[in-house]
């Protein structure tokens, strides 16, 4: 698999800028060098922020029809080069080429959704005469952009999760500075290339490549940044929240998502859905299935079917069409996953399939009866490992599913509508997928979680709400 990828320059306030200091971008499959990108300095991040101050004014004044045109042109640009974008995603990250193509499609949809939602940044009239003091007043509110948004994005969806921040920011008239994951910066730069081609005015968008320790705090703490949109781990999110100061925060911080399988479920369909949900993107998926709670009567049949489906998963070269799962993002992550599994087995868990590591590759792994005190039972594994538990009834399943510090999404498999609604209302999560695994999302829905899974909601319409503020206007009538 080969393509000419964009490298060696970052997108700084509408200009492509190189640097003497660089970061190697490596293919995690074999550690081969793909290219290099600039290692931005604090001064370069400060320059991007100063330029964004002017960019925010330009963005706010940009007519809605122009915002829509730019977003649609950027989507067209990507669509016409979709295979090159997919190859770049797959080269620098963990996704197979088939998974990468799907991400490109979603990115295009995200940008087109952003164009559509740009026309819906609306307000409404306010009946001031609901108060005795307001009988001679009429008015309304409208939404205005907050200014400059700082976006920090992860490696696992290096194109579409950037689009989920950039698209709504442009649609709502803001400037935005993106700090992409250090290991997967090329996809974000390709997104900037699309907006550059589409005619986005300079200074509205910057994609600044570099290390978090060098430029991250500058972006997070600067008073001109009015919102931080972060997707990543809980510990990093907590550090950002402590440092950010008085600004908006939108954070998606991952999960260890549960699936509940009741005895009346279609067991074969549930097993197929949960296998895909557990092992897609090598399990490096914030809504991937990690914990499965199966009613006792269905446990053995579900376990057998789940293992059969897991054994079919083809692990190998992510560039091959037949491959289902590639490597983790780095060998050290595969070693971490390996150690967590070993800890669980040593504590009494039963390894049913998998548990083998080969460099950055870790085989699809299923464990049952993991003690609740084990790391893998409480934390986000972010790797291809799924945990199986038998439960007596739906009540026990709900209680165990809720007994963690995360709450992003959940899957529930049942034909009983009453039990479905029981689970819907009692699970402490941001989304419940009925007869689907937790690993289901469309880019137009509100996406986010509770507890340690984050703050706020992504999804284009809902991100725009966070990126704007209401301004109230009142006319006092009858004044002569």
TrEMBL record:
UniProt keyword terms in alphabetical order: Oxidoreductase
InterPro entries according to UniProt: Ald_DH/histidinol_DH (IPR016161), Ald_DH_C (IPR016163), Ald_DH_N (IPR016162), Aldehyde_DH_dom (IPR015590), ALDH-related_metabolic_enz (IPR051020)
UniProt cross-references to CDD domains, sorted A to Z: ALDH_y4uC
Statement: the UniProt record of this protein carries the keyword Oxidoreductase: yes
EC numbers: 1.2.1.9
Broad EC category: oxidoreductase
A GO MF term: glyceraldehyde-3-phosphate dehydrogenase (NADP+) (non-phosphorylating) activity
Keyword Oxidoreductase set for record: yes
Domain Aldehyde dehydrogenase residues, every copy: 16-473
Entry-linked PANTHER family: ALDEHYDE DEHYDROGENASE
UniProt protein name: Glyceraldehyde-3-phosphate dehydrogenase (NADP+)
Species, as recorded: Siminovitchia thermophila
């Amino acid at each position: 698999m080969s393509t000419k990828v964009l490298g060696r320059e970052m997108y700084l306030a509408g200009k492509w800028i190189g640097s003497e200091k660089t970061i190697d971008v490596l293919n995690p499959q074999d550690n081969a060098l793909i290219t290099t990108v600039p290692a931005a300095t604090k001064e370069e991040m400060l320059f991007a922020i100063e330029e964004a101050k002017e960019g925010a004014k330009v963005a706010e004044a940009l007519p809605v029809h122009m915002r829509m045109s730019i977003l649609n042109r950027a989507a067209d640009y990507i669509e016409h080069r979709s295979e090159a974008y997919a190859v770049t995603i797959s080269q620098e990250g963990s996704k197979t080429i088939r998974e990468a193509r799907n991400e490109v499609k979603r990115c295009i949809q995200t940008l087109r959704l952003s164009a559509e939602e740009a026309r819906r940044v609306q307000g409404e009239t306010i009946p001031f005469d609901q108060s005795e003091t307001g009988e001679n007043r009429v008015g309304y509110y409208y939404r205005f952009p907050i200014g400059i948004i700082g976006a920090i994005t992860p490696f696992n969806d290096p194109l579409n999760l950037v689009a989920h921040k950039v698209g709504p920011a442009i649609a709502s008239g803001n400037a935005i500075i993106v700090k992409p994951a250090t290991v997967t910066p090329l996809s974000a730069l390709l997104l900037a290339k699309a907006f550059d081609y589409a005619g986005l005015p300079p200074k509205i968008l910057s994609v600044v490549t570099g290390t978090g320790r060098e430029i991250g705090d500058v972006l997070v703490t600067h008073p001109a940044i009015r919102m931080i949109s972060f997707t990543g781990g809980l510990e990093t999110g907590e550090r950002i929240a402590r440092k950010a100061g008085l600004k908006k925060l939108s954070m998606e911080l991952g999960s260890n998502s549960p699936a509940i399988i009741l005895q009346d479920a279609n067991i074969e369909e549930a097993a197929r859905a949960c296998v895909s949900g557990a092992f897609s993107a090598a399990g490096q998926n914030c809504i991937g299935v990690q914990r499965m709670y199966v009613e006792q009567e269905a446990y053995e049949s579900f376990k057998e079917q789940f293992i059969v489906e897991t054994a079919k998963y083809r692990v190998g070269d992510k560039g091959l069409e037949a491959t289902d799962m590639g490597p983790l993002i780095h060998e050290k992550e595969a070693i971490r996953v390996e150690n967590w599994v070993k800890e669980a087995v040593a504590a009494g868990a039963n390894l049913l399939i998998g548990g083998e590591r080969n460099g950055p590759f870790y085989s699809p792994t299923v464990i049952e009866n993991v003690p609740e005190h084990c790391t893998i039972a409480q934390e986000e594994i972010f790797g291809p490992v799924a945990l199986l538990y038998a439960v007596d009834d739906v009540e026990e399943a709900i209680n165990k599913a809720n007994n963690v510090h995360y709450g992003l999404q959940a899957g529930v498999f049942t034909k009983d509508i009453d039990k479905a609604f029981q689970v819907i209302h009692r699970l402490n999560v941001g989304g419940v997928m009925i007869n689907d695994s937790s690993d289901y999302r469309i880019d137009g829905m509100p996406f986010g979680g509770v507890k340690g899974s984050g703050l706020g909601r992504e999804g284009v319409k809902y991100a725009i709400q966070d990126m704007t503020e209401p301004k109230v206007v009142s006319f006092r009538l009858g004044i002569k």
